[in-house]
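pipeline/complex-builder :: batch 7 item 3
reading input block
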Amino acid sequence: MATIPTLALNIGWGTTLAIKTIVVLTVIPLGAIVLGYVFLMKMMSHMQSRLGPMDPGGFHGWYQLVGDGLKFLQKEDIMPAESDRRVFAAAPAVVVMSTFLVFLVIPMGPDLVVKNLDVGVFYALAVSSLSVIGVLMAGWASANKFALLGALRAAAQLIAYELPLLLAVVGVVIQAGTMSLQGIVLSQQRGSVFGWGGLGEPFVLTQFIGFALFLVASQAELTQTPFDMPVAESELVAGYMVEYTGFRFLFFFIGEFGTAFAFSAIAATLFLGGWAIPGVHGDLANILGPVVLFAKLMIVAFLMFWVRFTYPRLREDQLQALAWKFLIPLGLANILLTGIFKVAL
Amino acid sequence: MSTTDTPATGFAVDRSALHHLADAQVNVELDTGDMILNLGPQHPATHGTLRIVVRLDGERVVTADPIIGYMHRGYEKLTEFRTYPQVTTLINRIDWLSSFANEVPFMDAAERLMSIEAPPRAKYIRTILTELSRIATFLLFLGEMAAQVGALTPVFYGFRDREYVLNLIEAATGGRFHPNFNRIGGLKDDLPWGWIAECRSTMKVVLNACDDFEDLVLGNEIFEARTRGIGIIPDHVGPSYGVSGSNLRASGVDWDLRRDGPPYLAYPDLDFKVWTHPDGDSYSRYWVRLQETREAARMVLQCLDGIPSGPVMAKVPRIIKVPEGEIWVETENPLGQMGYYVISKGGTGPFRVKIRSASFSNVSILPWLLRGVYVPDVITILASLYFILGDIDR
């Protein structure tokens, strides 16, 4: 029986750094494109009894998003006369940057992780809220009242929903006993369901409240539909993005779907076992890991976008009330329960 | 306008405070200042070119002034330079979503002035097409309102099912939006062969669509949270602003010109219910329109069952000259009460036509209604009042 060739290559840190940089820089835009195509163009169309793009590229119009991207590149770059030019130009970069930073700590295999931080979860949630700064910058610098209203709403919302997001994760951290994402994946692999360890123990089984909380809160973090007051297209036109055109708008688009991609990946890692698949270990897991993670994150993303295309949006005060009066107490109760079980069992 | 008069900076100055300068300084420091937000004329929520100047305190509306006229096309004046048959082309562009219903009161007015009457079959066909345009208008509303509240999907269902109705109108009249099918004294043509069976099956589609909307939109908690208690028009305020149609019936006023007005078309023969809702909020406006869509479909089915045979055109002279006289005819259109005051001096065209369109009066309640609500609710209220800009500006 032939042994699987080892993948442990001896390469210098410079080459490693280059490879990691390239991977991160390509994965996020690619993920954004895949999510945009699969969910925004095809799933949404089919839910709305239409086909969506069918012609470009042959198979179900897969080329449409690439075409759209190219279209954005050749659009005129408009900057409002009253705008604060430097801040206006920097804002999309700040938003996209936070997405890239989140992806640094997500493990895609036993050895496939850009940086295995001990405080991985903490870091991921911390940098993901950097995008608020970008959003506020965009809204302020646009010199547009709609943009300013949108940015202020976004800031209020993102801050409010940061808490349930964190509280949802705390349950997982207590159960796993570590904040490292790689450690969380491994502890799910080691666990057992009613004494049967064949599947490991995906935390969605015990932390289902946390999973639901995480989905709701990340929906709000992504400003997707029940919580899309900041970009409400029927009233604020597009909120903080209203003055952006061309390439800068594309940045916001990549930021939106890239963040959806990253948050789905985090959810898949925390609750669905990440890259792990039963019975696969070692180098094969390194090869299959990204594929498994991708499949799991697509399931999470499906749930998120399903809600997005189904529900109307909550009003600003209603969504604040939901966060402070319902989700945060629920998150605290979940932590309490998890703590009791952790100590008692 | 003095209350909304502000300096160029956009910050309100309390003029009475100038007498007490010390107080004024304290006030100015504590006052966060109102922001003036221009909703429209190009804004997706006004679906047209309505402009609303909203003065905001935070997200709360202090005053709201609708500014209309961006779409004024001068139809009242234009009718004075057209012959009676040519006026049809103009007036079905007033409320472009239910063009056929716009033609009906004008035809009625001209026919009454000439003291001719359309044959019964023509009246029935007119009733069917009027109700079909009501269904088409309301199906669009049922999707559109959900879209304004933030749900992306129902609008496509509304458009999809409205398409079947528009196809029917097209099959009968040749035009989807502007049928131009009425003639003074009747209709241009009879219904095409097989149309009645087609219409029956389409009404089933419409009734199913109404069930879908009831499940999908009315049954949604977020939709309810966004619309219940928002934009309440009490039953004594609505009529004083001239609000009519479904907006008024949603306030609990049981008034429908098809039943309560002077008899027109085939409505006296039909058995139908006038739906009202006691609440008067945005939710009840949606609810009433949903019920009226169903009722309209049932009325079409009744008409199809009872449609008489015979000609569709009365005997009219080749060149239509309307004898001298004045007449006021009002009908219950999808958007509300629509009336024409036609003055004839005996020529081939009207001397003067005054058009009372429903949306104009429905929108006039906005300054009263929008005071003190949040910005998102402005959009909900605008959507639930359901106006067509062509119907406001004419």
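note: Residues 13-344 of chain A form one domain.
queue -> next item
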